[in-house]
Amino acid sequence: MSRRLRASGHFRTGYAQDLRLVETRGERWSLAVFLIALLALPFFASPFLLDLACQVFLASIGALALMLLTGHAGQISLGHAGLLAAGAFTAGILFKEVNAPFWVTLPAAAGVGALLGVVFGLPSLRLRGLYLAVSTLALHFLVVYLGGEYETRRGFSTGVVIDAPTLGGWTISGGRTWYFILGAFAASTLLLCLNLLRSGTGRAWAAIGANETVAEALGIGVAAHKLLAFVISSALTALAGALFAYYRGFVSVEAFSLFLTIQYVAMIIIGGIGSLLGAVLGAVFVTLFPYGIEAVIGTLAGAQRYAGLLFAVNYAAFGVVMILFLVLEPLGLVGIWRRVQTYFLLWPFRHRPMAGSRR
Amino acid sequence: MRSLRLPVVQLAVNIAVLASIYALIACGYVLVYRVSRVLNLAHGELMMLGAYMLVVTASQFSSHWPVAIAAAMGLSLLTGALVYLFLMRKMTGEMVLAAVLTTVALGTLLRGVMVLVWSAQQQYPAQALDVANTSIALPGGARISFFAALLILTTALVYGALLAFLRFGRWGIRMRAAGQRPLLAAQRGIDLHAMYALAWGLSTMTGALAGILIALDSGLDQTMAIVGLKAFPAALVGGLDSLAGALLGSLIVAAAEVLLIHYVDPLLSEVVPFLVLIAMLVVRPWGLFGTREELDRV
Amino acid sequence: MSEPLLSVDKLEVVYQRAITAVQGITLSAQRGQVVGILGTNGAGKTTLLRAISGFHGTDDARVTEGAIRFNGRRIENSEPHRVARAGIALVPERDKVFPNLTVAENLRVPVARGLAAAERRRHQARVLQFFPKLEELHDRTAGLLSGGERQMLAIASALASKPELLLVDELSLGLAPVVVEDLMSRLAQIRRELAVTILLVEQSAAVALEIADYGYVLENGRIVLDGDKARLASHPDIQEFYLGQSSGRRRSYRDVKQYRRSRRWYG
Q1: pLDDT digits (tens, 9 = 90+) for B28-63
Q2: Contact yes or no for A319 and B282 at CB 8 A
Q3: pTM across the whole model
Q4: Are B148 and B134 in contact (CB under 8 A)?
């Protein structure tokens, strides 16, 4: 562990050092402070804030899953809402039909997600780029149809109600409990993704994302790895969907629209493609965004008449923000953060020296 | 549960109408993809915008519905060109993925704006234009509405014109060239930005035409964008860079949809096109008439 | 002496803001000349031609210093279609025809600046006279043509826009010597009868020196030698390193070092 406070001047001199997640003293302290704040929050926050935090945790899981797929294996999925729905409905159906406990439904949801990943990932394997986007669109409509069918045929036209999960005699409910549980899930997902990316699989994905032909020539099974990325991503997403179902206590097909998919895509765009930190930052931004819009509408004079059309304002503002990030800052919030970081790191110099220039 | 069985002729008519709708929308996807290599996922929303343009022009030309339609078409042509010039042009250097995501963002933006400007209420431009959508009797006991019949005719005309233009017209050939090898086309004197703007304009215009006729036939509301999205599998099934393929693909998807809705389950309406799509992806991913090398470009 | 049709002054081209591909290039082409640009792989010849004909957005390349003047007007960092419409046509090394269009369609694509329809048809017929084979292959899809036929189509379609300056990149690459001979003689004919100035980039010096009036030798992005055909063909270094004609005697280490030193003097 380096005793240096900042990264400037820190050199890695061995493989073990290279693998460390937290390197410098400065990083260690900032992480500690952050964790303490995170753990202390539920004891000082209002229920509204707790709910917001839980939503952010849930969104992070889905965003990290999408980032795994898009940012590293270079594929885009437009079926995210479908996968969330699949997980949620698996939990709901298992609960309603066989009264399964959560430690059955959660893995089952992940399994369903993985299965869908295989089924819809396979056709697009021998194809490149956007064909996965297209086949996941099909996934969305199929899952939504099946969910709707279940609701109609079983008479749950307003949605499926799920009881709170129980462990032994203890019922899991209340903002604070959920905060810690969802926080734990989110943290585990982040660690899982971090480690995946540092592993051989992660490097294979990076190679595939950079140049498929060369990766294949190097002996990396491109098709297998792409499928693996999609399966892992789908399983995580379905798991997030099931957690979402338990948190809300309610599953309804209306909640899983294409706009939900677009929101997740926005999370990784706004956060910054290719970065796990970006996924989390994006999840925070997108989750808080509607509340921000609502607040702005509330204070802006003359905007009262738009209050009833809040969802439309949301759509429009969302589209604008996405476009702004795509056109102006494709590296997203992480890009902005790194620029700020670099400024302080290199001060008083302005730029890093250019590699390969003659001057 | 089972509704009254329709005579086979009526089913055929329904298929023809739905196929025309999908085909007219699908040619927009093909035009943009073929010329500028971008999947325009905002096409459904742009189509809806065109229909709202009709609502606007209907108030100006309330007694001359052909003029209102023509004016709305002109506005859509302009809109498409402007979308390229002010937004998509900035994405030409970037990855295709970024360009597609930009269209998704644009679609979202348009959805919001349309509701804010025109409200989510259903509109009936036919009423505003004071034109009756008479029901025409056909042999065999089938019926078709005036605007649905007009839609079939329009699709045929549009496809005829586009196919002739691309095949024989000097600028049609140049459009195809620009789609194949943009740099070489530029080196032969073709202004690529103008070409792309034209493709986007034509694409939006034909999509708007579909939206306009649907609005005149059965009203305009927020579900129209979904129709736009359902036409996408039709384009893909035919081969994203083939107009003739889009026509055939639309026929297949429409037939599957109408028949399955009628004989199996009405709720299947949204899923069927995508099921056909998945089947196609498994069997022949580049579509019926698409060029195989297109795969690698995507 | 009248002003040259094309003049390049101390040109510097940089890729991706970091890699300098050519530096300090100064050359010119008089009206009606055939100018050869010689050099090995990576010398910067194609970059030079691309700089003249215009870079596309995706290349991430820029002319960072110097000027390119065509008919007195500066054209560096212009868009390719503007350069084409000004009267410069490029026959590229790769991707030289539209593979999914027929031969006839390929010939209809170029924008012939300022020509009326009748003039355009006449000029087209004129160009096809140099390549009668193309008339036979009228309806063949361009992607199915042989190497030599494709090269003919590429040249014909470049000429279809009635350019004043024709840039030819690596004509001989991948073609049999017989075919190359044939194309070269056609080019010489075209130069005479259509009054086109030609800038010919070639790895094969022998091929280039056949029809070139003047030549420049590029190495590592700089011009190291230039002269008219006679001077170049008789220059011992050119003979040794580009024409493969060694003087017979064994070269010592000091001789090779001398070659390298003289390169540095020029550079």
Answers
A1: 999 999 998 888 999 999 999 999 999 998 888 877
A2: no
A3: 0.87
A4: no
